[in-house]
Automatic annotation (TrEMBL):
This is Suppressor of fused protein SUFU. It comes from Sinomonas puerhi. Residues 158-185 have a biased composition (Low complexity). It comes from the Bacteria. Residues 158-191, 203-230 are annotated as: Disordered. Residues 219-230 have a biased composition (Polar residues).
Length: 230
């Protein structure tokens, strides 16, 4: 009987065509919660791109996760590991506290990597995956895993950001919102085109911001076994 993580990695192997990823573990700072691993694919989905997917966020519990538990994904035209490593650190720092709802934004308050002016992320459905590939991933538990995409965005300065912890119910752009853990319908964006994602409102998800020092930690890449993921 495959374990939970084996089921998830098998799903990713199918999506990548068996490409071997690199694994970057982030040790847990939360008693009772496991760490989060950033799984990094080079030249996926295209040459010169990095795709990172987390594993470990969905091992926590949150009261709003009623239809699924999230893991995070990012695909960028870059060779800078800060982008996928940021996902692992966000997941570890905010794990169990942040529900990672579609439409939420995460504000770092400064540039995430030197190759971009982007200072934050907005969460929505992954642009590089079909709905059947990111929603309802069976890991052998009651709640499936849903992969949530992070998109780079320019956020306001900390002085103007709203950090009340509440989540937007909508915005002036007409952007739809969905229940936490529930993937949006194909009609959620005009023409069902998730690449139309754009910054929503100036809020930091759950009023928390990852420690800016964390995302520059260069965690050594290891194998599945060495990371403890298997």
């Amino acid at each position: 009987m495959p374990t939970r993580v084996e089921r998830f990695l098998s799903h990713l192997d199918r999506l990548s065509g068996g490409i071997e990823p690199r694994f970057f573990p982030v040790e847990s700072t939360h008693p009772g919660l496991p760490g989060v691993t950033a799984i990094v694919y080079d030249d996926v989905p295209e040459s010169g791109m990095l795709t990172g997917i987390t594993y470990g966020i969905s091992l926590a519990d949150h009261p709003v996760w009623r239809v699924g538990k999230p893991e995070l994904c990012i695909s960028v035209k870059s060779d800078d590991l800060r982008w996928p490593l940021a996902l692992g650190h966000i997941g570890e720092v905010q794990g169990g506290d942040n529900p990672f709802c579609y439409g939420d934004t995460i504000n770092f308050g400064e540039r995430i990597a030197p190759d971009s002016d982007m200072t934050g992320f907005v969460l929505f459905a992954p642009a590089v995956l079909d709905r059947a590939d990111y929603a309802g991933i069976d890991v052998g538990e009651t709640l499936p895993v849903n992969i949530c995409g992070l998109y780079r965005s320019t956020m306001p300065s900390a002085a103007t950001s709203t950090t009340t912890g509440s989540r937007p119910s909508g915005s002036s752009t007409g952007t739809p919102t969905t229940s936490c853990g529930r993937p949006p319908s194909d009609a959620a964006w005009p023409n069902g085109h998730v690449r139309l994602v754009r910054p929503l409102v100036n809020r930091t998800s759950c009023g928390k911001r990852p420690d800016p020092e964390l995302r520059f930690v260069r965690t050594a890449s290891t194998s599945k076994t060495d990371t403890g993921i298997l």
